[in-house]
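Limitations
The structure tokens in this dataset are predictions for the assembled complex, not deposited experimental models. Users should treat interface geometry with appropriate caution, especially where small molecules or nucleic acid strands are included. An illustrative entry is reproduced here so readers can see what is and is not provided.
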Amino acid sequence: MSGGTVLRCWLALMLLLAATTASAFVPLGDFNLPVSLTIAVIKALIVLLFFMELRAGRALVRAFAAAGFFWLLIMITLTGADYLHRTDARAPIDQATPASR
Amino acid sequence: MSERALGIQYATLAQEREAVTLGMWAFLATEVLFFGALIVAYLNYRIWFGNDFIAAAKMTKVVLGTANTAVLLTSSACMAMAVTTFDSGSRRAPVLWLSATALLGLAFVAIKATEWWLEYQEHLVPALNFDLGRYGGIAEIFFVFYFCATGLHALHLLIGISLVSWLAVRIGRGTLVPGGSTTRLIGLYWHFVDIVWIFLFPLIYLAGRNG
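Predicted assembly:
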């Protein structure tokens, strides 16, 4: 990796940092989180591909690097599937004794 | 250049390089899940508690947080320069870049400690002095996440600073010569700690800023 590549990556990271901080103060409602997380993913990819040399790395090394993030996505999906579908409904045994609460 | 002996279990230098790189990535995969569990917990609490949780995030110091992100991203660029200059055979340049990396790492910890001190004065530290009556229970849950996440991240950074300093001393004394993987592997660890912060930063500091 050349010094020029490092400099360009650093400039891109600084611009993305400015963009993500600025975007947080723009009222986008529910879209603020996806926007900031998308920028975070782009920043992480710059670090992974260039600084951590995955772009020039062999396929096996890339597969090892991807594995951790892949398992994390499984964890996020399955945990989210549980919590997103929980409701405030009480079990019958709790509904029967409101006075004791 | 390469006076360094090859590990006895390897046939070629390329084989050794790939094996140790794979080993480092296997370790980093466990680190992804270690910090990932914290982030999953955060996302679920954020969905569950909604605005009350996001309002607590607004009490974090966004200026210091943004400055710290810039410091850490710059330290990663310095680390990448250290690896590049070391591979090209220079001895002075990597020592200077590694010193810059370690100093920026220390600057990050110093800014982080300042934030913790400010939060302590605002009675925002759970289990020490959290003002439950003033901020409420949901804010306390946010700050439990905040102190666990930033504390564990700072611990990783302190380990990284120690490794980078040790590396700078060894390269400076000439006991570590190009051809091996030590510098690159410590670089991988440093960049990984940077990636963790890249995700913690928007979750902690940028939530609820326009509300």
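Some entries come with short summary sentences. For this one: The CA atoms of residues 11 and 17 of chain A lie 10 Å apart.
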